[in-house]
Amino acid sequence: MTTATATAANRRAWLTDLPLLLVAAAWGSSYLAAKGVTTAQTVMAVLFLRFALVVPVLVAAGRRRLRTLDGPALRGAGVLGLILAAIFVLETYGVVHTSATNAGLIISLTMIMTPIAESRLSRTPLPRPLAAGAALSVLGVILLTQGAGFTEPSLGDLLMLCAAVARTVHVLAMSRMRGVRDADALSLTTVQLATALAVFALLCAAPGSGAAPWQAAAAFDPGDWLGLVYLAVFCTLLGFFVQMWAVRRTSPSRVSLLLGTEPVWAAATGIALAGDRPGWLGLFGVVLILAGTAWGRTALPQADGS
């Protein structure tokens, strides 16, 4: 490969990687935003409102494209939407029932789960730099989140572990489902989010689900609505649109590794806005996460530029 070709390939890779890093930053900041608008009694209501803000806009903006989806694409997007709903329910209830330390550490296991699962499915050996980079990143998460101390295993820990598995299944399914490979990304995102919204509506109606969406909305102040709009637009709509767009241009392992920098952005948000102080060991953890991501990134396929 000539120097010019390598430079062009690196440029194409960054055009895919940068949006993923921005999504990781948005998701990292979402913990603080969600904490401001969600309580144990309003989890399902907030999830419903979060998706209800964006789905009608997507349907109105892309109704002509939606008509081009064939049966396999619709079914594939619907399945992805069910997985997406499971991720949000598991993560949200998991955070409520465990410590932020345990939640951040357990969800980061997606960085290791996805490459291992992808290597097994494709029957190819796991590149050593990727394995080492992922392990280094997880070690960094341990150091970053150690300040609050670890709690005994709980129901919340199990829910977060299930969420990490669901994240892995979601990103692998996006790349391997034949029905969605060539379909319009915006239309697929719309169907996914609409499916998840339908699931949340059903769960809101179930007994013991907590406050109804209109009750939660009536209690919101302007700051709560601002936080909800941020979660809906940047962390939900743009986040999952970019993820679906990127996984079709590069590998699921690369997507998960870059999104695995989420704990770094969560820490940065906490330091800047919430006054968190991770200490020198935590800051060293940030360095390890970034180093592990960069190291693992060298072993993964670059964007194809399509």
From TrEMBL:
Domain (EamA): residue spans on this chain: 18-145, 155-294
Subcellular location: Cell membrane
Listed GO CC annotations: plasma membrane
Membrane spanning residue stretches: 12-34, 40-61, 73-90, 96-117, 129-149, 185-208, 228-248, 280-300
UniProt KW keywords: Cell membrane, Membrane, Transmembrane, Transmembrane helix
Membrane topology classification: Multi-pass membrane protein
UniProt keyword annotation of Transmembrane present: yes
SUPFAM superfamilies: Multidrug resistance efflux transporter EmrE (SSF103481)
Short name of one Pfam family: EamA
Domain of life of the source: Bacteria
Keyword Transmembrane carried by entry: yes
Family statement: Belongs to the EamA transporter family.
Name of the featured protein: EamA family transporter
Lineage of the species this protein comes from: Bacteria, Bacillati, Actinomycetota, Actinomycetes, Kitasatosporales
